[in-house]
Specification:
6-stranded antiparallel beta sheet; 3-stranded antiparallel beta sheet; 141 residues; mainly beta; globular; 1 helix
Length: 141
């Protein structure tokens, strides 16, 4: 994990990349992998491209899963997962949904769910809408 001070410095750098449109509104947000910050735990490692401080309406992450994520639900964010590589299973509402490369899984807010890799590594791209907020996450196990 990177330090909070380092994250703030990177966020400032990222915010400078915003393009202003008519009336000063932000039109384009660009985040680079080299500026992303790392996160993870046993069986999962990833990078977050942005945070709610960068853009409160959405955030994005790229990660690899070799085990289970752990059962959770978000109180505020819908989640959209794109499977980039591998095979896995999402478990929601006691239903197992097999996934593989190029599948998209949408998890509405307040839906308890879990996911895991099946044989090897599952590589995912995730969008939270609105942006991920650690204080609005509920760990269910």
């Amino acid at each position: 994990m990177r330090s909070g001070k380092h994250k703030k410095a990177k966020r400032k750098k990222q915010k400078k990349r915003l393009k202003n449109g008519k009336n000063g509104e932000k039109m384009v947000l660009k985040f680079k992998l080299k500026d992303a910050y790392k996160f993870g735990w046993k069986g999962l490692k990833g990078v977050a491209y942005n945070s709610k401080e960068d853009f409160k309406k959405a955030s994005a992450a790229l990660f690899e899963v070799t085990g289970r994520h752990g059962k959770v639900k978000s109180l505020v964010s819908d989640r959209i997962y794109l499977v980039l590589e591998g095979k896995g299973e999402f478990i929601a509402n006691e239903k197992i949904v097999p996934v593989e490369k190029n599948d998209v899984i949408i998890i509405p807010k307040n839906t308890p769910y879990d996911y895991k890799a099946v044989r090897g590594t599952l590589k995912l791209f995730l969008v939270h809408a609105p942006a991920f907020d650690e204080n609005k996450e509920v760990k269910l196990e």
